[in-house]
Design brief:
Chain lengths: ~180, ~160, ~675
Amino acid sequence: MKRLPPLVIVAVGLVVGLLALFALGLAVAGQQGRRPESGTPAPAFTLVLYDEHRAGLPKTLTLADLRGKPVVLNFWASWCIPCRDEAPEFEAASRRYKDQVVFVGANWLEIEAAALPYLKQQGITYANGFDTQQQVARAYRITGVPETFFIDRNGILRQIETRPLTGADLDAAIQGLLK
Amino acid sequence: MSGRPGRAARFILGALVLFLGVLLAARPTQAQDGSLEEQTREIAKHLNCPTCAGRNLADCPTDTCAQWKGEISTQLKAGRSAAQVTEYFIARFGPGVLQEPPREGGFLLAWIFPIVVFVGLIAAAFYVVRNSSRRGAPTAPAAATAADPYAVELERQVREEA
Amino acid sequence: MLTDVGFYAVILALLVLVYAAGISVVGARRNDDRLVQSGRTAASLAFPLMLIGAAGIWAALLNNDYGVKYVASVSSRATPLFFRLTALWGAQDGSLLFWCLLMSIFVFFAMRRPWREDKSLLPYVTATMALVLAFFIGLTLVSANPFARFDFPPPDGRGLNPLLRHPGMIIHPPVLYAGFTGFIVPFAFCMASLITRRSDDLWLRSSRRWTLVGWVFLTCGLVLGGRWAHDVLGWGGYWAWDPVENKSLVPWLLGTAFLHSAMIQEKRGMFKNWNVALMMLTFGSIVWATAIVRSGVLTSVHAFAQSSMGPIFLGFLVLMLSGMLYFWLTRLDVLKSDNQLDRMFSREGIFLIQNVVFVSSAITVFALTSLPIATEAFSGQRLTVGPPYFNAVVVPQFFVLVVLMGIAPLMAWARANGKTVARQSRVGLFAAALVAALWFVTFTLRDMSFWTVVAALLVGLCAYSLAITLMEFARGTRARMTANRENAPTALARLFGRNQRRYGGYFIHLGVVVLAIGAIGKGFFGGDAIRNVALNDTFTYRGYAFTYRGLQTVPCEFNDCQTLQAALKVTRAEAAPPFAQAGDFVGAIYPHVDRYEVQQFTSTIADITGSFNEEVYVILSAWEDEGASATFTVYINPLINWVWLGGVLMVVGFFLAFWRTAPETVARPVLAPAAGVAGK
């Protein structure tokens, strides 16, 4: 067989490239809707906490910092009405399980001017921070707010909720984590 | 006769490339009245809003976007420059907030790509033509069919002084 | 009842098409015309069957049969009759069925055409069309079945997406789909020609008019889409370089390149493998666009995940692309040029450059629209490639095309003469200088900047092409007058009558230039501002005064929404001699915001006033204290109406090119080298 003419190489390359691109797109689109599964290690994250809402934690909070304690990770936004409904429940629960469970709120796509007044108005005292460049939201593949992730003391994801939660819901989930 | 048209073609091509270069090199500068609202809008036009697919921040009416616009105004009022405000948004939300790929680092590839494609394809066309004309004897040009006197007349006019 | 009949009709259509494809190939192999004719009949049956299928959905829509999932998602008891009918293409599932229906119409008419000299192509034309159509029907049934039913039907439906309740959006999808599906005819001829190893241009000539039909539908679809976006999306523009828009622009660019290069093959027997490649790329990009939009790859953030559709499309793309590649590569030796292109400075050379620019812009649009997919996959960052980027890298290429459009008619075939071209350019250059100068004085001086100077130059380029094109009409008329001794009007009329393709084509070029001038006006001289104003107060912007007259709630058109409507009086703030005085009344406008309770959706509808050359487009952005003050966004869109006018002219040009008023006297020239008369 002679050397392949450049035309053939270009044409074949084009077709293969196009198909690969489409497959890649499908893979990305497929992952989009697929959250990390419970029972698997929770994706690592780094969250920059608001100065007023550090709750004694480091400014740049990573999941590894919290190993040894169960974590409740909640995504929210100030304009989201269900978030507003569940916020007092979260605050109450965070006080109930003080020293046992770490509550972390992650703001979704908002600037401080919107986020901080909301936290103040809701009287939130647990740690809250900003998700730089949406890294956490991407790692957890959230599709909206509110979404809540329950992580046990070994860093294993135990439960995922994509609806607003009540105090009873939180109690049940946290009892599972503390077991 | 053979030299001149070739030079003319090269001249036209050169002019086109130069013209493209000028267009690419400069950026639109819009006359502004300088009010805070206008400045905010100007910055927002170059940003994307995450909750409004396909439209820029300035034209997007959602709540989150209203907050973002508010933030731009606040920062401008605090004396930050347009570039600084844009930097802030990139740092916070990633390079995806820009309406266009950033003109730096690996993203420059996105800007070079169209130029490479354009120049490359034109060069390839010239290469193919030169190769084929070298290989075969030049063929006679097509003639308008004699059946249509109008076509002959038209061809004659195009070829005048040829 | 009818809905079930429709479902089975669609299944039957699928079976019939598979049969048609198989029997045609067998017939061709055995050289048995009866089998080929049987395949032809079977493929034509797809259309009536698909029509029954569509009727099934229409029946369910009209009968409020909300047991059908699709019907419940796009219609409701409050939906008026007209929108119930158009709800067939109101969402994914139905619109895919509708897409198949349109494609089956093209297949039907292609099958029913008289097959004469091109009869040898018939079996493979049938097979190609039947396979492609069968795939889309199969896809509809497997992963987007609009006939699917609920176990427990809801009492009422959700109603049609409010964004789609606009005349532009009602017509836009059918027209665009017709453009996409119409290209199946030339594609099938192309494949048949390849498979049967033909080296001539039979496939081009047989499918030429079909290509034009597909092209004009695509053009109309793009323009209508722009109009819809302008009226409904409320950002004042008409083209947002949105991924979905881009995906329909790519086939248009490639298809337009093909229309031009096909002429070279018909005239000179050159560019054969290039034409085949372009046609395959055009149709490939259509299937690709459909795949990527429908499977949710493009807008993955907001996508309703179509889990099964993506892999099915991937499979089909693998088959189709490798099939095309195989037949193209194994037939390259057949597709040798009859003539050499030995000089770039010739009509063919200009066509080649023009083709290259079309393809280059198509590649850029395609690649950069797909770039976010790649960046997201590799870095997790979803990059945006928006209007500023495309305006900077693609629009200049379009202006190169406008210039080439002006030069090409002056170039002789095979070997042009620089002096002649320069001499015949004089009128064009004069027009360019004049128009650019006028433009500079009237527009640029008012708003001096680097870009408004560039705009004046660009308008000059447009004027050059416009003048040369008009000159072509004049020259053709004069040639006829000399050669046939006709008077001017007769000569002009016969010019169009006897050479529809050429002069219809030039007429389309006029439309393109007008559109380009409109784009310059809007792009370089448009402006927008946002203003807050108290009740009965006035603000001014760009020479207009806007007086806010109040805000009121009115019932909306279909009683399923609340409309909050602002009233504004627009007058001239400054005189624009010699046409207008300061204080002249321009218009009363009522921009409004519609709130849909059921869909939880708000749409902002602009209102428009101004003149033909300068549109004033106003949006109600916000309001305070029940209308004590309100915020408006005002867009001044100079010459935007020229964009629509250009689109209309392009369609008119299509009709001029398409209708056969007289048998074509110019037969394909015989291109034996010795036949040249002007070969000096």
